[in-house]
């Protein structure tokens, strides 16, 4: 979903620019001028086509909405220039990688992406990289404008009291959940077999018999495998410690590292380039496979543990989570799952891993599920788990007692939007803007584009 949202936003600029820059594509006319930068009709048309193909909802006339959005982006970028805002290139490249994977997945392969945009793949990457940088700089400007916003509980109460009845949000069913997981034991022979395969790949590269990138495409189980195992430039803190320790000690791009074990599996690494405190590498990841017998053994162990907790023979659920669970994200917090979207312990059912949601659906507060299998979200490894439903909050109209954080977020968002809108209207007045005939009959979101007060 995130990748899809990124594509929708970038369609306003990057895809339009790709289309407009295609040889033989005639730019029909200038629709707007913002400072000394034109907004072309062809940009707007292409953005509209991409939003339609991506099924992005447009509430209103697209020939009014789209050019205004492009104009707003350019005002933010001008402010970013004034503030000398820079972006972290490694993060840009990670976002571009995600975008390219999204395009390849949806269009079929690299060749089909090139056919769609009528550009070589490296040029498409660079267009998207440029627009990713712009999006990051725009976000930094917005953050700077609203960073001093202060909110008190009294502000939130007054905001809620003044909300029209039909504006009070409806809160879907939410749950609070604890989890215990076990990783099935992987036989030594399976681990030895994986290491032997990686040693063979490394030897073939070191002898010059194979290209590392080709082996990565053919055999790596990492998402980067489709692009030859290349990670892009990353800092030490963006890599798991075991991987970083080996990668940053590599010096010869023609050689392959020793085998590295991380929480994701076993890797071999090849250096591409170092730039200061960032490094670009290729890697091949193999994950030892879990046998059915070992999964069943883990299920049995967890079933026994569950029975002991239910019968209050040994540990409580919280104690078992701390001492037995192998889930690194929850075992130090008594197994309590935290929603990464908002930092709270509440989840809508759609926000939980699918297997957890299915296990929770039939429970009453305080009950513990039977053991079930699931894919570890980070590692794609099959593990076993039990969950305890600690609380169920039925669907309801929001109220301050149960939903203070939700209402506080609504208030903060509304105040941020007021600050941004005031800034934009001031910026519009200070900037040369010309909207050509044929593009003026719009009910724009912001005042001032046509010189009105």
How would you describe the shape?
A: flat
Query: What's the arrangement of strands in the largest beta sheet?
Result: 9-4-11-10
Total strand count, please? 13
Q: List the quaternary state of the chains.
A: single chain
Regions with little confidence, pLDDT below 50 for 5+ residues = 1-25
Radius of gyration: 27 Å
User: What is the percent of helical residues?
Assistant: 40-55%
Number of helices: 14
One letter per element, helices H and strands E, the order comes to: HEEHHHHHHEEHHEHEEEHHEHEEEHE
For the record, give the distance between the C-alpha atoms at the N and C termini, rounded to a whole number.
Answer: 39 Å
On the 0-100 scale, what is the average pLDDT?
A: 88
What would you say about this model in short?
The protein has 453 residues and is an alpha+beta fold. It has 14 helices and 13 strands.
Question: Could you please describe the fold and organization of this structure?
Answer:
The chain is α+β, with helices and mostly antiparallel strands. The chain is 47% helix and 15% strand. It has 14 helices and 13 strands. The protein has helices spanning 2-20, 41-53, 62-82, 89-107, 110-117, 121-146, 153-162, 188-206, 212-219, 241-247, 292-310, 317-323, 354-361, 400-430, and strands at 30-34, 37-40, 170-171, 174-182, 234-235, 260-262, 265-275, 278-286, 347-348, 372-375, 382-393, 396-397, 433-435. The strands form four sheets. The protein has a four-stranded antiparallel sheet with strand order 9-4-11-10. It has a four-stranded antiparallel sheet with strand order 5-8-7-6, with helices on both faces. Strands 2-1-13 form a three-stranded antiparallel sheet. Strand 1 (30-34) and strand 2 form a beta hairpin. The longest helix is centred in the last third of the chain and has 31 residues, at 400-430. The chain is flat, with a radius of gyration of 27 Å. Residues 1-25 have low confidence and may be disordered.
């Amino acid at each position: 979903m995130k990748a899809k949202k990124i594509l929708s936003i970038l369609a306003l600029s990057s895809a339009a620019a790709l289309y407009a820059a295609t040889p033989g594509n005639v730019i029909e006319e200038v629709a707007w001028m913002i400072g000394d930068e034109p907004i072309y009709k062809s940009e707007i048309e292409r953005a509209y086509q991409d939003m339609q193909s991506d099924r992005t909802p447009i509430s209103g006339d697209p020939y009014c909405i789209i050019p205004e959005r492009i104009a707003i982006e350019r005002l933010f970028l001008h402010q970013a220039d004034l503030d000398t805002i820079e972006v972290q290139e490694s993060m840009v490249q990670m976002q571009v990688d995600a975008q390219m994977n999204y395009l390849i997945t949806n269009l079929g392969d690299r060749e089909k992406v090139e056919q769609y945009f009528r550009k070589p793949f490296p040029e498409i990457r660079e267009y998207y990289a440029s627009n990713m940088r712009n999006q990051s700089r725009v976000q930094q400007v917005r953050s700077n404008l609203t960073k001093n916003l202060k909110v008190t509980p009294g502000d939130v109460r007054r905001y809620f009291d003044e909300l029209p009845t039909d504006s009070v949000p409806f809160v879907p069913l939410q749950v609070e959940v604890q989890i215990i997981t076990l990783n099935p034991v992987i036989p030594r022979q399976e681990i030895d077999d994986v290491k032997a395969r990686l040693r063979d790949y490394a030897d073939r590269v070191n002898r010059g018999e194979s290209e590392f990138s080709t082996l990565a495409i053919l055999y790596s189980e990492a998402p980067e495998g489709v692009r030859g195992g290349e990670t892009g430039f990353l800092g030490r803190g963006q890599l798991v410690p075991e991987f970083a320790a080996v990668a940053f000690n590599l010096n010869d791009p023609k050689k392959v590292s020793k085998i590295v074990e991380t929480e994701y599996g076993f890797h071999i690494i090849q250096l591409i380039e170092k730039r200061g405190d960032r490094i670009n590498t290729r890697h091949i990841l193999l994950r030892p496979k879990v046998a059915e017998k070992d999964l069943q053994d883990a299920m049995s162990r967890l079933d026994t543990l569950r029975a002991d907790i239910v019968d209050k023979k040994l540990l409580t659920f919280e104690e078992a989570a701390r001492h037995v669970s192998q889930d690194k994200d929850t075992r130090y917090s008594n197994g309590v799952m935290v929603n990464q979207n908002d930092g709270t312990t509440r989840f809508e059912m759609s926000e939980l891993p699918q297997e957890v949601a299915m296990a929770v659906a039939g429970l009453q507060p305080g009950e513990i599920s039977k053991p079930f299998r699931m894919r570890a979200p980070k590692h794609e490894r099959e593990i076993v788990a039990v969950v305890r439903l600690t609380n169920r909050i039925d669907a309801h109209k929001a109220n301050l007692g149960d939903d203070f954080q939700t209402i506080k977020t609504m208030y903060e968002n509304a105040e941020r939007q007021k600050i941004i809108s005031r800034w934009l209207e001031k910026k519009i007045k200070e900037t040369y803007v010309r909207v050509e005939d044929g593009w003026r009959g719009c009910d724009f979101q912001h005042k001032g584009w046509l010189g009105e007060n």
